Amino acid sequence: METVIGIVVVLHLLGMASIAAGWLANYLGAARGLDVLVWGARVQFVLGLVLVGLVQANKEEVSWAKLGTKIVVALAVVGCAEIANARARKGQGQPALTNAAFGLMLLNVCVAVLWSTPEA
Ligand code: HEM
Questions:
Q1: Protein residue with its CA nearest to atom 30 in ligand 1
Q2: How far is CA 29 from each of CA 19, 33, 114, rounded to the nearest angstrom?
Q3: What are the pLDDT digits (tens) for 83-100?
Q4: Residue nearest to ligand 1 atom 28, measured at CA
Q5: Where residue 20 falls among pLDDT bands split at 50, 70, 90?
Q6: Is the terminal CB of the chain with fewer CB neighbours within 10 Å at N or C?
Q7: Does 101 map to a domain?
Q8: Based on C-alpha coordinates, what's the Rg of the chain?
Q9: Residue range 109-119: average pLDDT?
């Protein structure tokens, strides 16, 4: 189980990297950058929930305050990315929304790493 959790954490980190890479590519004007950002945000959210299930199945304690905060912030990341994507399809550029998605992703990294609890 430890190995499975480790593999999903690696995928979770790659999801985070996809959000950052998608934001940067979009910022630099790459045509598919926003797609990478949106899919990274979706995958990151789902993998986070999968991780919670695995950690609990492994009988490890979880901090619901920390995880609840991460869920709310991650939902905001997905929301900003989805709205930016929908508007981009209509030809409306949305730098504020993509920047917000990136900033909120950084906030969630800080929550994940700096919010230390005795549990997960
Ligand atoms: C933008 C969204 C997210 C980002 C950037 C993010 C970032 C990270 C990072 C950097 C880690 C590894 C560091 C650490 O273990 O402390 C991590 C672990 C973890 N994340 Fe996220 N996360 C996001 C969303 C979520 C969501 C929505 C959940 C679900 C509640 C979640 C659940 C977890 C769990 C359970 C772990 C730790 C697994 C373990 O016990 O090692 N994450 N996350």
A1: 67
A2: 15, 8, 33
A3: 999 999 998 877 999 999
A4: 48
A5: very high
A6: N
A7: yes
A8: 15
A9: 89
Is residue 62 included in any domain, yes or no?
Answer: yes
Residue of 12, 47, 62, 113 to test ligand 1 pocket, by largest number of atoms within 8 Å of CB: 12
Pocket residues: Cβ below 6 A from ligand 1: 9, 12-13, 16, 44-45, 48-49, 51-52, 55, 67, 70-71, 74, 77, 105, 108-109, 112-113, 120
Give domain status of residue 120, yes or no. Answer: no
Q: What is the rounded average pLDDT for all residues in the chain?
A: 94
For tokens 């593999």, the residue is 7
Count: domains in the chain: 1
- Measure CA 8 to chain center: 13
116 CB-contact burial (10 Å; exposed 0-12 / middle 13-18 / buried 19+): exposed
Task: Give residue 34 CA to ligand 1 midpoint distance, Å.
Answer: 22
Mention every residue, 6+ apart, whose C-beta is less than 8 A from residue 56. Answer: 62
pTM of the model: 0.93
Query: Domain for residue 74, yes or no?
Result: yes
